[in-house]
């Protein structure tokens, strides 16, 4: 594969709103030992990209400063010690950064084969959400068949993934969303009930069901004490983001008396080995269901790479259902 010396990228020109995302050129990176270079076809747009753009989510010191945490494409080059992948292989990958570009490098163990029959745009929508959901709902949250699972933001990329995986594992799935259209989308994916948070108190709704065994939350703020109220005894709250803020006053007594668990994680700072372990679990437990079509990413829209600012505007407008993508090549 012919690799140019420079490429088109979208950089964060300064911290701020979507308008600070600017197309420019940069050198094509070289894959280091254990890494692969991917010629990107599509890149996913995710909330952490917007946080980084605003100056609130710094990339690791050894990662690209460009936004973009997932992509699909073809292997363009391999670093020393890489044996699984060859030039030309179609992959979808979790990236440490750098996805808003024509080429990006990532650890070879963080790439997965494109599921059979899946298009490149849909393949690019997999890794950030599936890694996050698998880690937090199943590895940390320990969701089991028959348990009651509530996911906030059910129509988001995370939410649509969580609903499908929880349903696949025979949990009873509930969700919150902000419009009738979004609620209907969650129901179609397998939610037993979806609560429009403008109209329904999810705490009372879940109490009527006996309480949630597990809640996946990305809102934080005022939702945190309400989530605790909505849990059943021995329930677990898993926090993955704080759209409403991370600081809250809590009465911790019910955590003790009702044996509640609060946990959470963020994906990007985890070790290379931890991310590789998640990838192996996904390939074994989830990828066959993607290949069969039993589950799949919910797609909202796609923008050209140069229009990354428009993609961020759509994401932050919160009118989308599912994943927003950038078409790179």
UniProtKB/TrEMBL annotation:
For this protein, the record's SUPFAM superfamilies field holds: GroES-like, NAD(P)-binding Rossmann-fold domains
Q: Where is the Enoyl reductase (ER) domain?
A: 16-326
Gene Ontology MF term list: NADPH binding; oxidoreductase activity, acting on NAD(P)H
A family per Pfam = ADH_zinc_N
UniProt keyword terms in alphabetical order = NADP, Oxidoreductase
Q: Which NCBIfam families match?
A: quinone_pig3 (TIGR02824)
- Report the protein name in the record: NAD(P)H-quinone oxidoreductase
Source species:
Roseovarius gahaiensis
């Amino acid at each position: 594969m012919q690799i140019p010396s420079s490429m088109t990228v979208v950089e964060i020109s300064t911290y701020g709103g979507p308008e600070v995302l600017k197309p420019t050129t940069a050198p094509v990176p070289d894959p280091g030992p254990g890494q692969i270079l991917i010629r990107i076809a599509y890149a996913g747009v995710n909330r952490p990209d917007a946080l980084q753009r605003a100056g609130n989510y710094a990339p690791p010191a050894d990662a690209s400063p460009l936004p973009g945490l997932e992509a699909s494409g073809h292997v363009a080059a391999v670093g020393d010690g890489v044996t699984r992948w060859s030039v030309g292989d179609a992959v979808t990958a979790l990236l440490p950064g750098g996805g808003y570009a024509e080429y990006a490098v990532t650890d070879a163990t963080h790439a997965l084969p494109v599921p059979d029959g899946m298009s490149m745009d849909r393949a690019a929508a997999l890794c950030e959400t599936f890694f996050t959901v698998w880690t937090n709902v199943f590895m940390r949250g320990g969701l089991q068949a028959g348990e009651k699972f509530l996911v906030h933001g059910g129509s988001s990329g995370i939410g649509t993934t969580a609903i499908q995986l929880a349903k696949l594992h025979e949990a009873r799935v509930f969700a919150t969303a902000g419009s009738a259209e979004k609620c209907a989308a969650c129901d179609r994916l397998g939610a037993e009930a979806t609560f429009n948070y403008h109209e329904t108190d999810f705490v009372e709704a879940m109490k009527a069901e006996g309480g949630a065994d597990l809640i996946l939350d990305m809102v934080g703020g005022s939702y945190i004490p309400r989530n605790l109220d909505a849990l059943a005894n021995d329930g677990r709250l898993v926090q993955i983001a704080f759209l409403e803020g991370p600081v809250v006053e809590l009465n911790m007594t019910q955590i003790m008396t009702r044996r509640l668990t609060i946990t959470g994680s963020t994906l990007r700072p985890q070790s290379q080995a931890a991310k590789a372990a998640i990838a192996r679990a996904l390939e074994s437990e989830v990828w066959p269901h993607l290949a069969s079509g039993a589950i799949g990413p919910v797609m909202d829209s796609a923008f050209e790479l140069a229009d990354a600012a428009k993609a961020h505007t759509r994401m932050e407008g919160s009118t989308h259902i599912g994943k927003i993508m950038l078409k790179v090549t």
